[in-house]
Amino acid sequence: MIESYLEHFPKPLLDDLVEGRTLPIVGAGMSRNAILPPGFCMPLWGDLGKSLLEDLPNWYEYTGAIDSVSAYAQEFSRVKLIEEISKRLFTHIAKPGKVHEAFCSIPFDLVITTNFDFLLENQYNLLSKTYNPILEESQLSMKLSKSGVNLIKFHGDLNHPKRMVITEEDYDLFLTHYPLFATFVANLLITRSAIMIGYSFDDPDFRQIWKIINERLGNSARKAYCISVDASQAEISKFERRGVKVINLPGNKEDYELILVKVFSELRELWTSKVLKVSEISQEDPLRELSLPKSSLNRLCYFSVPLSMQYFYKENIYRIVERCGLVPVTASDIISSEESRLAKLDALIERAFVVIGDNTIKESEDEISYIRSKINNNKILIFSNTDENSISQEGPVILNKPLEPVQEIELLIIEDWLFEIMESIGMQFVNEPRRLYELKEYKAAVVSALSTFEMRLRNFLWSVREKYPKVERATLNDSLKFLQEYQIISDEDFENLSSFIKKRNELIHTRMGTDSIESESIISGLEKIIQKIESKQ
User: Fold this and answer.
1) What DSSP assignment string belongs to 424-439?
2) 3-state secondary structure of 462
């Protein structure tokens, strides 16, 4: 097995993924990976057609799945066909498998599926991810979901039998019956790069839409791709004559499930690791923390709060978070494409050291629920409309949201909770620069060393706040001037700190690097200066 399957993906497609400009199209081949009791196997579209043929008079010959399905409906009625399809797709016993879990973990904002089953929906539920199924044209005028996945059921599903596109007549009349739906999907195919997964591309209605796009746009049409494993030349040729590029992954077809799981995991990792790099981060402190490697310890405190409530938190809660040595950040501090909003959320949740959320209005409930499924609950604090506070070692801290003006005593619980977390892991922060240095991550070691220095400096300033009250919320530069003025650090220390900070900023904002000698000098210099400062407590 190769080191990374992404080597087989065209770079322009991976760039589109990171920028949120891809459109996954999921077919029956994906459902093949569902979990079923021993002895059962999920049929592909062709298998379904052949199995239905067994119930038809023996003079019927198999000429394709659509013909068999259409003949079954004509012979026994559409109602009986839908019932039989539901039974043969094992709707009530099939469970999503590892492939579904890996796929649904990718933060797509839009997914198209031609499947009638509910495996994707069930997997999104298991991941506590919100999804918005779109089946009817009347839904297209409504605002797409921003908090979850918009799941386009192109051919309907078993809960909407009238909407199902399953017989020859359904396919023939699709553009007539659902012209707005076809236009909506066409627009997505025009503006995004399609990625077909387990999809044969044999559906006449979809191919007709695709053909119109390519005839009108010609060379200006976006590429479409199909993920396949050990595809034969005949399979590749079928897709390429329809204008679809095959990403033919090495391996055995028997390992299809394992390969797809790894592919989806790699795609998700690529997206969540790069989305912040291609975004604009408006605040300097979060930018510094986010410049650290993903595996590095950072001081980010992610505020999962509605935009309308951010002023309250910035005015009342931020200072508590900063006092404890953490760096507050919100999703609005990071400007990315609208299509990458879920990827940005995933990246922030994964990078955050702690999370503070607001669950007092309905629009924030889904995100809070998703966050709780992703990270340790003992690092989450949630403001709610609860009557009683809930403080547990295992679960999240749930507090009644204070009313303005907020009293200091109401903030003590938050401060104590944050201080307890920081104290439990304090030495890891202190040792993190050296750990990164030993890994030869010299740039990250310098950034981490300055971050740790700022955290320890803030703790010192808090400890002397009664003697020097003006420095409690001072900027880093003002704090250093204060230390110099009161001879807590020497003029030489001040100059060294200024040069260290300048170097850190260059590393973050430019492509400049550093070496082992320079990074060791900065780390050692910062350690000596902070020890001198702390000795004055």
Assistant:
1) HHHHHHHHHHHHHHHT
2) helix
Q: The pTM is what? A: 0.89
Q: At which residue do the structure tokens 């503006």 appear? A: 191
- What distances in angstroms separate CA 251 from CA 5, 13, 125, 228, 248, one per listed residue? 10, 21, 31, 10, 9
Note the CATH number of domain 5-36+95-272: 3.40.50.1220
CATH topology for the 279-426 domain: Rossmann fold (3.40.50)
Amino acid identity, position 170: D
Residues 100 and 94: their CA atoms lie apart, in Å, by 12
Write the pLDDT tens digit of every residue in 428-484: 999 999 999 999 999 999 999 999 999 999 888 888 888 777 666 678 888 899 899
Residue type present at position 492 = E
What gap in Å lies between CA 19 and CA 341, rounded to an integer? 10
> In this structure, how many other beta carbons lie within 10 angstroms of the beta carbon of residue 365?
15
Q: Which of 30, 22, 151 is nearest to 100 (CA)?
A: 30
Rounded CA separation 144/141 (Å): 9
- Dist CA 500 CA 8 (whole Å): 42
Per CATH, 5-36+95-272 and 279-426 having the same topology is answered yes
Looking at residue 143, its pLDDT comes to 83
- 501: which residues sit within 8 A by CB, 6+ positions away? 450, 476
What is the CB neighbour count within 10 angstroms for residue 488? 18
Q: Please name every residue paired with 357 in a beta bridge, in sequence order, or none if there are none.
A: 304, 382
Average pLDDT over residues 179-191: 97
Amino acid sitting at position 490: S
SS3 content of the chain, % helix, strand, coil (to 5): 55, 10, 30
Closest CA relative to residue 149, chosen from 165, 164, 125, 132: 132
Q: Is the pLDDT of residue 102 over 80?
A: yes
Q: What is the rounded CA–CA span in Å between residue 450 and residue 291?
A: 12
DSSP string, 135-190: -SGGGGGSPPPSSSEEEEETT--TT-GGG---SHHHHHTHHHH-HHHHHHHHHHHH
Instruction: Say whether domain 440-536 belongs to CATH 1.20.120.
Output: yes
Q: How many CB atoms lie within 10 A of CB 261?
A: 19
Q: For 448, list phi and psi in degrees, rounded to 5.
A: -65, -40
Distance from C-alpha of 475 to C-alpha of 234, rounded to nearest angstrom: 66
Which residues contact residue 319 at a Cβ distance below 8 angstroms, ignoring those fewer than 6 apart? 473
Report CA dihedral (398, 402, 407, 413) to the nearest 10 degrees: 0
Helices (H) and strands (E) in the chain, counts: 23, 14
Cβ neighbours, 10 Å, residue 404: 8
